[in-house]
Every structure is written in structure tokens, then in C-alpha cells.
Design brief:
The chain has about 375 residues and is α+β, with helices and mostly antiparallel strands. The protein has 8 helices and 22 strands. It binds zinc ion.
């Protein structure tokens, strides 16, 4: 079955403006497993746009050869509202201009609405129950409010993804090594994705909090039991969701996009969305020594004051607690008193930089992934805005 491309109309923000979302679909509707991929939910993060650009012809060829076993839904750009958010030539992209905040936070918890619709216990046949719950989940998603343009966009993206087996949300950091975030229930799939993509850093969490796009459809299944649906705890974790951080904002190139697309394709084969034969369309996975870390053991080192950053250790460096990772320069201070050392509290791998070198107090300077729990990192509040 060939690709079907939908053009989903979005509400016009002003008279004379026509906005839409493009969605590519592969495989028979309803076939399993279903994978959903999107890029640039944070509209200022573009490596995912390049990856999905290179994935499209691979999926087209796989579809033409009858290699799509399940269903693949691709939103090649997830946030056309944010892409238009420019100030002085810079796409800000992360926060909605309508006051609704970070676009990758506060995705809806549909468990209460689904529980109300189920109105009774599940059957005890896990496969049939998952199928039934997914049907009700689609109804609940279709009932989400769409009063504003951003609410409408959130509703559409939820409808596309809520019932998927695999939700891959492609983002990037400021400057970074590639890494990914996933719930601990998805550890095996997260490692598989990292291996296929050549990503060495996997961050796992029980409850990140904040309602990130990829966590909502994962947490839904756990929440179902919490809101009192009898038998829901037996369903396990039918959805794997992940935020894939494709390095830094400037890491946009054909070479990187093609490599990322190949990795995504290999993952889709590995989890049975595509037939094994599709693997021949790309080369083998690069060698990657995948390391898993707990998200609550990531030291997010923030700027203690305003200033200019001079990094002291390269991305990927192995650092120890107490090491100086950066120097903050205050151009207003007396010479000799104008350099402040900034240290990490963690022993581990330094994997992100801030892409800006002039920072304000509280701006994140680096992240260090380690293994020792850090007292200031709290479950349920692990994502910075
Ligand atoms: Zn992002």
C-alpha cells in the first residue's frame, strides 16, 4: 500500500492566512504495531525535520515493496504555529506566544476521561482489553477542546499518536551529544532504538513530571489503574514513548539526517513495524556503546550569575564531582575578579552545552549524566522548562 498524505487544516490565526499540518501514513489503517514519529514540536529544533526528510523516501520504497507490516504515521513538522514565532529574525519556537507555555509540557492525561467512558472493569483478556481501551482513547482524544489554534494543534497531535505502540518525538538540545529520554518501562525498547541509531546515552525515568508529549501516552496506561479501572494494572506498558535529542540545534545536515533516518528505519524493522527485508535499504547500525542513566541522576548545572561562558571541558568528557566544567566571565567586574569557576556535582559524562555563550542567572550551562542520586533532583519535577 502506497503512502497516503493528509493535509489537515488548522484554524487560521488571522484573516488571509491558511495553515495546515501534513501527515504521511504508511500501512493498513489499524495494523499493528503502530509507530508515530514527529519532528520540531519545539519549532526551533530542526535536526528532526532533516531526519524525517530522509526517512520519507525510505518509507516510500518500503511501502512500494510491501514491507510495511504495521502502521507508520509521520508528522514531518509538528508545530507550524511555532515555526512562525520569530523575533528579530530568530525563531524562538519553544514557548507558545498565546501564553500556553512550553509546547512540550502539559500534554493531556486522558485516563480519567477513558475511565469514565469504560464505566466498568476490563475483561481480563489483555490483548482484547488493550484494543478496547485504545478505541476509547481515540474517542476521548476526539473530545479534547480545540478552542484556540494551539489547543487545536495539541488535539490533532494527540489524536495521531495516543493509540500508538511507539511514539518517537524528535527534538534536540542546545549543543549536545545525541541522547534519548524514556520511561523506565520502555528500557528495552529505548536501548534498541539507541543501538540502531548509534546513540550512546539513554536517560530513564519513572516519573519525569511536566507532561512531555512522549510521556503522556506512556503514563496513560499506568494512570488508568490509578483512576480506578479494574484490571488495568495487568495491561503492562503497551506504549513506548521517547524524546530523541538529535544533538544540538546547529547539527542539521544531509549526512546527519540520512544517518538518523537509517537508524529510525532499522528500529522500525527491529520492533516489527517493517518487515526484515526493509533493513537492506540502509547500512548496518554504527557501533555504539549504549550507556543508561537515571534522569534523576543528571546534574543540570545552572549559571549562578549573568556572564559569558568559557567551557573548560569538551562535550563527551568524563568528569568527576567537583570538577570545573565552565568559567563564567563578568565583563563588569574588576580584572582579576571577573572569572567564576562553575563545578559539577556529578561524576559522569558531560553531554550538553548551552548554545548561547552569554547567559542569565539560572540558565542551564551543562548537563552531566551520572549514577549517584542528587538530592536536589525530585521525581515528578525532573524537566526544566
Ligand atoms: Zn525540544
Amino acid at each position: 500500500m502506497a503512502r497516503r498524505t493528509e493535509r489537515i487544516a488548522l484554524n487560521a490565526p488571522t484573516p488571509g492566512v491558511d495553515r495546515h499540518l501534513t501527515v504521511h501514513r504508511y500501512g493498513a489503517p489499524g495494523a499493528r504495531p503502530k509507530a508515530y514519529l514527529q519532528a520540531a514540536l519545539h519549532a526551533d529544533e530542526w535536526p528532526g525535520l532533516m531526519a524525517l526528510h530522509h526517512l520519507a523516501p525510505l518509507l516510500d520504497a518500503a511501502a512500494a515493496a510491501g514491507e510495511v507490516v504495521g502502521e507508520v504515521v509521520v508528522a514531518p513538522y509538528a508545530n507550524p504555529l511555532g515555526m512562525d514565532h520569530r523575533i528579530g529574525g530568530v525563531v524562538s519556537g519553544r514557548y507558545a506566544y498565546d501564553g500556553s507555555g512550553n509546547t512540550n509540557r502539559n500534554w493531556p492525561d486522558l485516563a480519567p476521561a477513558v475511565a469514565a467512558r469504560l464505566n466498568g472493569p476490563l475483561s481480563g483478556d489483555a490483548a482484547a482489553d488493550v484494543e478496547r481501551v485504545r478505541g476509547v482513547l481515540r474517542e476521548a482524544a476526539a473530545d479534547l477542546p480545540e478552542r484556540t489554534p494551539m489547543m487545536q494543534l495539541r488535539k490533532i497531535l494527540t489524536q495521531l499518536s495516543a493509540d500508538a505502540d511507539h511514539v518517537l518525538d524528535l527534538h534536540c538540545d542546545g549543543e549536545a551529544e545525541a541522547h534519548l529520554y524514556a520511561n523506565i518501562t520502555g528500557e528495552e525498547r529505548a536501548r534498541a532504538l539507541a543501538e540502531e541509531m548509534g546513540i550512546e546515552i539513554v536517560m530513564l525515568e519513572e516519573e519525569a513530571g511536566g507532561g512531555a508529549f512522549d510521556t503522556a501516552p506512556v503514563q496513560f496506561w499506568r494512570r488508568l489503574a490509578e483512576v480506578g479501572v479494574e484490571g488495568a494494572e495487568a495491561l503492562g506498558a503497551p506504549c513506548f514513548g521517547t524524546t530523541v535529542e538529535l544533538r544540538g540545534k546547529a547539527d542539521v545536515s544531509d549526512d546527519l539526517g540520512a544517518a538518523d533516518a537509517a537508524g529510525l528505519l532499522r528500529y522500525l524493522v527491529r520492533v516489527g513495524v517493517l518487515a526484515e527485508a526493509a533493513r537492506d535499504r540502509v547500512g548496518p547500525a554504527p557501533d555504539a556503546a549504549v550507556e543508561t542513566y537515571r534522569l534523576d541522576a543528571v546534574d543540570t548545572v545552572n549559571a549562578p550569575a549573568a556572564g559569558l561562558i568559557a567551557y573548560q571541558r569538551p562535550l563527551g568528557a568524563r568528569v568527576s564531582a567537583g570538577d570545573v566544567v565552565a568559567v563564567l566571565i563578568d565583563p563588569a567586574a574588576e580584572p582579576g575578579q571577573d572569572r567564576t569557576e562553575v563545578r559539577t556535582q556529578q561524576t559522569g559524562r558531560l553531554f550538553t552545552y548551552n548554545e548561547h555563550r552569554l547567559v542569565q542567572p539560572g540558565d542551564r550551562i551543562v548537563k552531566v549524566a551520572g549514577t549517584e542520586p542528587l538530592s536536589y533532583r525530585k521525581l515528578g519535577a525532573l524537566l526544566e522548562d
